[in-house]
Design goal:
S-methyl-5-thioribose kinase (chains A, B); two-stranded antiparallel sheet; 359 residues; nucleotide-binding (chains A, B); homodimer; mainly alpha; EC 2.7.1.100 (chains A, B); ATP-binding (chains A, B); Aminoglycoside 3'-phosphotransferase, Chain: A, domain 2; Methylthioribose_kinase (chains A, B); 9 strands
């Protein structure tokens, strides 16, 4: 049941209960497209903002907690690639007509309060003085200040912010971090799409990959004599790599399967030449990688110097060790945000992540 | 009064009468923002699809007819720059909050039939075999075929088409060619915004500039012993240059005036540094120039090989002379579409236009 304020802040920050309506709508729509990874909605009561949905049973846990505990999920990349490919492809103009698309866009425009919340906490507050910002102070005071004074970052974040608000590319989850995913070694279930609306696909992909990168940088803070976490860090990197590569493979698979359908973006009468289609797809996927890296790095940065932090870092007790992990994640996020257009593959991104060493 | 079909095609192509509702809405909204260049709506009857609006008296004529006749309009660039700057700036996120923006976006999403018509005739048909296409046959048969087989063009037009449908940047007129503008030497009145919805600003700017470039290339077909049209061609080029440069100046003037307002895109708390704001604005305007050139050249191309042609060329009686003019316009459009990201100023575009010589 949605309460009339933001749960993690309290009743000092009121929030529309109507978000439950969009959460239920998105659960149903994404569930129809990808039933394996979205719980069923049994009942929705709009007046009560109440969603009755499948109970995701133990031993499912929140993915973020599994990542902190150092648990490997061998099917995670495969499952998330499947979820992202299906939910994003089938709600885009690659599959739909403009008429269907605009109808849905108009409907989700009403989830504007959630859109505004994202704008503020992801694209605005971290780059200005705001009472909501917090960070590992005083250790990261200089780092937070550097973000607020970095004109290069501000130039990039402005472009992403406008793209986020203006560009209705697909029905995105809108908050696809590792806290919105419940897992066992065999199962992956995506929950909490209360921020759903039509926005750039890269916002979802970036949220997932960016939060995996945060988990990677947090590992050194969780290492101990029993487990140095080195192998686990490699598993996270492999999961990032596979998530993107499998997503790309599945997404292009859907595109090729439906290329003669009703999708408005690439009419078969024009793009019926296999060589041209392949060039078009390469350009599309490179653009999508750059968008994903932009949004993903923005989400990394905001988790270090903005209002909402991640348990990956918060659970590191030693403040100095935590600051060291956070600083590397922040530096990595800044480098990706500024340099995202240089990357042509996820492997190049992973090489950058590995190159960010201890300070 | 809107009829239930496309006027220039006839009742074989049905069209929603609801376009009159969006035309009246856009006339009112743009008229509020720029009363000097938009006629007042006195009455709108939705059931009858009937708009009662100010009669634009003689000696006002359609700008396109003036351009064919070789009439100079010394205030045209100034007036159109004023119209475009005001209507686009004040309906964008540079001025509005996300809440207001999304509300309007949702409303105009319903004008989807007109959006689909544009998609088809501007972004699709010219690049495929379509019964609606026509051209100056047989003289331009090879040219029309070359467009349908040009993978480079198809790659670019796909990007523009998706941007056109997905990106709700501002409330655009949607059909801002020289046939939608009525003029005298002292007055400029913009009419017929039945294609209005939230889309990229560059679509309007490009429509206007692209149609001026078409008028430029048509002049050689209207030259005679009494008037070689050389001076008039220079006036058109000067008008193109001034239209963009004055637009840019006025648009940035509005931005600077309202930079501490409620616009969501660039919050004053982040972009309060004059040096940063200047870099941000330069990037924004360069992007807008590239968008305008992309959409403008797409509109040039479609007027040569698509369904709807322009009187500028159609009024050239000698088919061979007409083909020569059209071919140069087409070649120019193709060069701009493919190379638009290389241009940093409108002067560079004009140099390209001048470099396209007789075949």
């Amino acid at each position: 049941q949605a309460l009339p304020y933001i749960r993690c802040v309290g009743d000092s920050w009121p929030m529309t209960r109507e978000r439950a309506y969009f959460e239920a709508s998105a659960l149903r729509e994404h569930g129809r497209l990808c039933p394996d990874h979205v719980p069923e909605v049994y009942h929705f009561d709009r007046a009560m903002s109440l969603i009755g949905m499948r109970y995701i049973k133990p031993p499912h846990i929140i993915l973020r907690k599994g990542l902190i505990a150092g648990v490997e999920y061998p099917l995670l990349a495969e499952h998330m690639a499947d979820y992202m490919a299906k939910t994003l492809f089938f709600t885009s103009l690659l599959y739909n007509s403009t008429t269907e698309h605009k109808k849905q866009v108009a409907r989700y425009c009403e989830n504007v309060e959630m859109c505004r919340l994202t704008e503020q906490v992801v694209f605005s507050d971290p780059y200005m003085v705001s009472k909501y910002n917090r960070w590992n102070s005083p250790l990261l005071d200089k780092d937070a200040e550097a973000v607020r004074e970095d004109d290069g970052l501000k130039l990039e974040i402005a472009e992403l912010k406008s793209m986020f608000i203006e560009r209705a590319q697909a029905l995105i989850h809108g908050d696809l971090h590792t806290g919105s995913i419940m897992v066992t070694p065999d199962s992956t279930q995506v929950i909490d799409p209360e921020f759903a609306f039509y926005a750039p696909m890269g916002y979802d992909i970036g949220a997932f990959l960016g939060n995996l990168i945060l988990a990677y940088f947090a590992q050194d803070g969780h290492a101990d004599q029993a487990n140095d976490r080195k192998a686990y860090k490699q598993w996270i990197l492999k999961t990032i790599e596979e998530s993107w590569n499998l997503f790309q493979q599945k997404f292009l698979g859907l595109w090729n399967k439906h290329k003669d359908g009703n999708g408005e973006a690439y009419l078969p009468a024009i793009y019926n030449n296999p060589e041209l289609l392949s060039v078009v797809q390469k350009k599309y996927m490179t653009g999508l990688l750059h968008d994903s890296l932009g949004f993903g790095s923005a989400k990394m940065i905001r988790r270090i110097v903005g209002i909402a932090h991640v348990e990956d870092f918060d659970s590191i007790e030693d403040a100095s060790k935590r600051a060291s992990c956070e600083r590397r994640a922040l530096d990595c996020g800044k480098a990706i945000l500024k340099g995202r257009r240089q990357f042509e593959s996820i492997e190049q991104v992973i090489a950058l992540v590995q190159s960010v060493t201890h300070d």
